[in-house]
Q: What sequence folds into this?
């Protein structure tokens, strides 16, 4: 799963195409099920996302969405969602955040 | 660290081989310690995993395990484990999860 | 964002150069804004890091820092920081952690 632009579907297409260039479906793989590329892609993109919630809404950039990447489909998948207690939320410019974290 | 199949060891071999194709050990790197590839691989795979626990057990797919990827070994590493309080756990089909999150 | 060595700036240069080799800025992309490579790199590296805090300090390796990777800049970014309640902290050698988690 990954957080990325969810406004222009071409971004998703570009991500998929680029992943297929980086890790071709057919290659010199040992895993006999024929889906080694999907396993490798899953480890590159990651199996979970961490999302902030404020006032009952996901905190995402203007164009961002949460993308569930299926590299070995179509097949049925299950997604697990956990809500964690958080104490504080701080929003900073990227240039300032180091100072604030360490203050 | 990454979550991936832990049943067939060939998956791990394929991941390692593919990472070595993407980021060769020898390359036009500037870092003088000779382990630039390991640094890059670490950022591609990620330094931590987020794991759900229910009823005292890790919630993983049937074949999944947590893989500690050593790209610059063998050497001794330390792993840090934190347990976080969670409120709720929801399990959804990937097709339904968006609706539930936003409901 | 990623956790990696923050002592030798060459590591950052190597990461950037390697990302540019893997996902060239100019390519056969469909997204018309010209920053498809940045979107893809963002999904490879990931949009957040999970950091442990003990005694008011980030728990990082000796040389590690938190790197904010800008693949489509310079531009202004916002970083969101949340603090989560944690119960316990366990530090283990990588070879022992499986036993402890499952015990």
A:
């Amino acid at each position: 799963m990954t957080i990325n632009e969810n406004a222009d579907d071409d971004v998703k297409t570009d991500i998929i195409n680029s992943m297929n260039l980086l890790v071709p479906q057919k290659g010199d793989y040992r895993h006999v099920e024929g889906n080694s590329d999907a396993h490798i892609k899953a480890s590159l993109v990651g199996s979970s996302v961490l999302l902030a919630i404020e006032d009952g809404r996901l905190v995402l950039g203007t164009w961002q969405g949460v993308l569930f990447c299926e590299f070995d489909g179509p097949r049925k998948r299950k997604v697990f969602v956990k809500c964690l207690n958080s104490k504080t939320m701080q929003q900073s410019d990227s240039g300032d955040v180091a100072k604030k974290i360490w203050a």
Chain A touches chain B at residues 22-23, 27-33, 36, 39-40, 42-44, 46-48, 50, 58, 66, 68, 70, 76-85 (CB under 8 Å). The first strand of chain A starts at residue 2 and ends at 5. The two ends of chain A are 33 Å apart (CA to CA). Chain A has one domain: 2-99.
